[in-house]
Amino acid sequence: MELGPVSAAAQAEPHRFPCPSCGANLRYAPDLEKLKCAHCGHEETIPESRGAIPELDLRAVERGEVPAHAMEEMRVARCPNCGAQVEFAADLHAKECPFCASPLVTDTGVMRQIKPQAQLPFLIGDAAARQAMNRWIGRLWFAPSDLKKYARAERAMQGIYVPYWTYDAETRSRYSGQRGTVYYESRPMTVIVNGRRQTQMQQVARVRWQRASGEVARAFDDVLVLGSTSLPKDFTDALAPWDLSALSAYEPRFLAGFRAEGYTVPVDKAYGEARAIMNAVIEQDVRRDIGGDQQRIERIETDVGALSFKHVLLPVWLAAYRYRGKSFRFVVNGRTGTVQGERPWSPAKIAALIALALLVAMVIAFLQVAREF
Ligand SMILES: [Zn+2]
Ligand SMILES: [Zn+2]
Question: Of the candidates 32, 87, 33, 131, which has an alpha carbon nearest to the alpha carbon of residue 260?
Answer without folding.
Answer: 87
